[in-house]
Amino acid sequence: MKNKFSLFIVVIFLSFCFVIFYKGLNTPNTYTPKVNEKKNIPTFKAKDFDSNNYINSDKIFEEKIFYIVNIWASWCVPCRAEHPFLMQLSKNKSIKLIGLNYRDNFNNAKKFINDFGNPYSRILIDKDGTLGVEFGAYGVPETFLINKNKDIIKKFVGPINQEIINEIKSIIK
Amino acid sequence: MKILKIFIALFLVVNFSELRSDETNDILKNKILKNIRCLICQGQSVYDSESEFASSIKLIVDRKINEGLKEKQIYQFLREKYGDWVIFDPKLNKNTYVLWLLPLLLFLFGGAIIYKKIMIKNKIQFKSQKKNENK
Question: How close, in Å, is residue B39 to chain A by CA atoms?
């Protein structure tokens, strides 16, 4: 009876170890922050790309519509790949795109917009990357979907593609 | 001349205290940065990392310290942005119960087994001693 109990304990312990290691092997070892967590938009003051004036976040998101905040830079290759999709999304009247120009050279950024088109209703300058941190970004490109109640409802890490565009369209309609 | 001396003394005291406060802020900043995980070069702390993310976090932490935020408040701010994983020293919550309590449970379980074994051994010894005495 005692031996059976000891065997039972050993089997339980080994099964537990197996489950832990098996789960560990199947989980990617790089961490990605949650992308579906609902968060309030941060309050901030940022420099406007066109006017060079400082503007408050409540002025940027003042309309009761959906917003997209897209973090981009002229030096970022995946940003070029996602740009046509952003141009496509900018034609939708029920959403406004805000660009966050991340750690970029002003002239290069301007050239990028002139060459590929401007999908943004407003571009903000994030010279030192701290504005990106306020949004919870850790790289570029990253895109945040903000609902009418000014909550970040979804975050897309990496370049936007047709699948993501369809997902955004299904959320905002 | 006396006024000049007083003025110099005051100047030195003010500058010295400013220097001390900068030094304290630097110590706090480094302590916090060493406890934040870089999300780009994972496994490295923000303090050790040279990535763009790390340099932005360094600026943010510096700014928050200057705004008067305490260490815990800065960790809370970063947790809200990136989750618990961004901090090297995880706090006790529903996601980390197992992490914190499992070693304790294993220790108690192991302790209980050792205690039971010793008690049984003592009982046997006591019984055989008693037997020997009766003989």
Answer: 7
Distance from CA of A80 to the nearest CA of B (A): 20
Amino acid letter, residue B55: S
pLDDT digits (tens, 9 = 90+) for A119-159: 999 999 999 999 999 999 998 999 999 999 999 999 999 99
A67 — phi, psi (to 5°)? -125, 150
pTM for the structure as a whole? 0.75
ipTM > 0.85 (yes/no):
no
At residue B13, does pLDDT exceed 80? Answer: no
CB–CB of B56 and A139 under 8 A? no
The residue-averaged pLDDT of A23-35 equals: 76
Neighbours of B24 (CB within 10 A): 11
**For testing contact with chain A, the best of B52, B55, B116 (most A CBs within 10 A):** B52
Segment 35-74 of chain A within 8 Å of chain B by CB: 39
Enumerate the H helices of chain B as residue ranges.
2-34, 52-66, 71-82, 97-134
Q: Cβ B81–A136 below 8 Å, yes or no? A: yes
Length reported for chain B: 135
